[in-house]
Amino acid sequence: MSIRVVLADDQAVVRAGFRTILESEPDISVVGEAEDGHQAVHLAIEQSPDLLLLDVRMPRMDGIAAVEQLRAAGINTAVLMITTFDLDEYVFAALRGGANGFLLKDIEPTELVAAIRVVAAGDGLVAPGVTKRLIAEFARSTPPPVTGPLPELTERERETLLLIAKGMSNQEIATALTVSPATVKTHVGSLLLKLGCRDRVQAVVFAYEHGYVRPR
């Protein structure tokens, strides 16, 4: 079954490049293009795509506002944010607002395709390079004070969360902990449930905000 994607970027040449890459894949189809956040929200509602590839900075309405508007309307289309900037101060707000992942525009075409498949399948995407930028953003700012009791995680769940925060895949975590990928998947599912997080991206945000992991 084809993954239906809407592209949102204010540069036509960028959208054309993404379309060429994605439509060369047998399991991905582009069902719409938007040049700003308003159009992106409209197309997400009209087309009900599996994934919205959304630029962070666009005129009229940026990617952050678009994500927030979609989530406020109860629309759960997977959103993969993409930006030119190595460290974009707005990206963290986008992840908090409900985005499922974040990429830089200088990635290889194969990485873009793989990311779309991962996020469309319902997983969050925290690539290692992206994680470093998120950590840098945490280091630049003071996390908000935490109130109330924190969920109790087992030692193995804490180890898994730490490795997720480092940007490791399930296979890499399995190798690091000397367990099977199926066991890692179980640990990930358990800690997401305990933390009340939708996916791995939210888990990383939660981990840093609540002190499970500290930026260095």
Characterise the protein shown here.
The chain has 2 domains: 3-125, 3-Layer(aba) Sandwich (Rossmann fold); 155-209, Orthogonal Bundle (Arc Repressor Mutant, subunit A), CATH 1.10.10.10. The protein is built from 10 helices and 5 strands, in the order βαβαβαβαβαααααα. The protein has helices at residues 12-23, 37-47, 63-72, 91-97, 109-120, 128-140, 155-165, 170-177, 181-195, 200-209, and strands at 3-8, 28-34, 51-55, 78-83, 101-104. It has a 5-stranded parallel beta sheet, sandwiched between helices. Helix 7 (155-165) packs across helix 10 (200-209). This is LuxR family two component transcriptional regulator. One of its GO terms (molecular function) is DNA binding. One of its GO terms (biological process) is phosphorelay signal transduction system.
Quick recap:
This protein is an alpha/beta fold and 216 residues long. It has helices at residues 12-23, 37-47, 63-72, 91-97, 109-120, 128-140, 155-165, 170-177, 181-195, 200-209, and strands at residues 3-8, 28-34, 51-55, 78-83, 101-104. It contains ten helices and five strands.
